[in-house]
Amino acid sequence: MKRQRTKRARTTTALVRIRIAAIWRKRWVRIAAAIAAVPTVILCFVATYYAVSFGRLIDARLHGERDTTLPRVFARPLELRRGQSLTELQLIDRLNDLGYAHREHVDRPGEFAVGNGAVAIMPRSPDFKAQIVRVVFERPPAPGKAAPKKAPPRPRIADRVLQLELGSKTSERLVLDTPVLTSLGGGEREKRRAVALSVIPDRVRQAVLAIEDRRFYEHPGVDPIGIAGAVLSNIRGKRGYTAGGSTITQQVARNVFLPKMFSEMTLQAAREKSWRRKLLEMWLSVIITARASKDEIFEMYLNDMTLGQRGSFGIVGVAEASRLFFGKDVSNVSLAEAATIAGVFQSPSALSPFNNPARCKDRRNVVLGAMADSGYITADVATRAQHEPLTIVPRALEAEAPYFVDFVGQRLGEQYPGLTTTTDQPVEVYTTLDLHLQHVAQDAVRDGLIGVDNQLAKRKRGKAEAALIALDPRTGEILAFVGGRSYNQSQYDRAVLSRRQPGSVFKPFVFLTAFEQALAQERHDITPASITLDEQETFEFDDQVWTPENYEHTYDGPITYRHALAHSRNLGTIHVAQQAGYDRVSALWKSLGIGNPPKAYPSIALGVFEATPFEIATAYTIFPNGGAMRPLKEILQITRGGKDITRKDSTPQKVIAKPQTTFLVTNMMRSVLNEGTAATARSAGFTLDAAGKTGTTNDLRDAWFVGFTPELLTVVWVGFDDNQPVGLSGAKAALPIWTQFMKAALAGRASVPFEVPDGLAFMNIDADNGKIATPYCPKVINEAFIAGTEPSQVCDLHR
Description:
799 residues, alpha+beta, five-stranded mixed beta sheet, 27 helices, 17% strand, elongated
């Protein structure tokens, strides 16, 4: 039997061969085979070419190309101090900025827990040796309960850090991690925060898998079941074949690897809905699956897909979406928030929680239902999450300093050409920005502009804009930077681009010129107690006639220099400039090297020329620094491949040879806050020793305030982009923003006096006439003088 079966098989095989040979002898068969062989060979060649080409891209991507092409930008490290004004919520926000995970109990580095009036943190830095830091908060007495009588007086603040505990020890100061602001992507404007798959919580991964590709871990990159379902759905719906059916791997192929392979024109053609594009995606998906693990593919997907737009920035990846949607680190999002992020993948523009919250919420609920169908959560849990409101943080992008990031990117392009397109080594940019002060600044600008809006609403003037720059005057390091009302609405950076008249904030430079000129000429009659005439006068120059007025159209007659500056008397200041020489006033400003030098006209005394808030901030650094100007600084350090490539800082420019004259002006500017045009800052609760100057330009077009302590200098500008009059003085529009910011920024800190240089003498004088005060003078000021210039006459007005 066995031999018979073998014989029959041989006979059958022989017959088949004979028939094939007979068919092959036919000429048309040989021609058809030759024709079919050509496309088959071509197809094999093309498939091999793409397999090799894409294989290289995949290998490069898996070996960390993402990190090297996207330099990361960091803010200052988080610093905690004993006595610091800080609430639990503010600390939690900062820890979210750093990517710390909120847990019930702290078990590993990068986690924190909240409870019993304290926040427990396990810092990531190896310096802490996995020890837990406890930040203990002190709160004010409950309403109706008085503080203990023996308690020492202290500023009334809502919450502050009572104690920092590191293990069994206490500390005065602790420095934690450095927060990431964003990544700069080769000229692309993206907000990106790539994280490892292990950091992304299960609820986010499950939400994405449930709605985008349930069989992701089972199929080889292409899902036949999904394709069949999509084809059937399209047939029933009478739509083109290309709707639906794309796996996560296919989306990675289309959005991550195809852009690297093709030019923009070819890529656009490749992305058109066609069989060719679909086949290319499928083949590439198979290659990706062969070269990378499922977890590596999923991590790419979660980190590299674009999830909408905020302003001019594309939101890339679930970690950045979490920050900008909810103001949270991705490890801390709730189930409903995870479903919201997953729902945006399908159509980032149409389903954005910012652009279309109603559709976004509907899509979120679909995702929650899909998670229940997939068995990730129960139906009851899904229903409860579906009833939660969609709560987003509308200003999360502004709080991350987008204007500052733009500015840093511009400076990097100017000073380090090609740095942001580096592909061989990772680049990290450490900036001067204090993220906490940035949040405080953004809140102050927002609240201040609401007040301005309310005042302008009565006059139907529209909505004004604002800019704020805060810096450490000792170093020039920029700590907070706001370029406008809303980056989402306008990316125009008013802090560095708006050239506007500085108005009265220029007046301190007029008095500085007068003191410098007197010192050079060894004159003893030009001091803060000298008298200037605040009376109307008409000035003629270059065939022009100018009759300036004071802001309130009132004139004080003979007044001291201090009074003229503190109360911003225009005519009194013009007469000081006239005596010192308009050309010398112009020359002093020119010596700062800032902008275009103003012309030597009488109007220079009132700041009738143009400058930016950035330039004004730079110029004002000469006052707390004894005449040395500090160039503003936005970058602390740049590393490439771990190597420091930071350029050396510009050396401080000694504009004023001796520090005595700048101290005289600084001391005079203290009266601006204590009794002058900015006195409302004191009534609003700002108590620290400070100096400053309000600024109001011609026709009330621009409102300014510049104020500083030895530790913090802040410039605020308010106005319209079209240069229409804002109709408000600096004291009404800009000063409230400055006051709110400075109160919060310096809360809990002791007042620091301005350093008094050698060669000065102090004397009590009559505030009205500048003569030596007697016991009968009603208003006495302890005035500063350069030694040898003190007044010699005793007040004879008050007896």
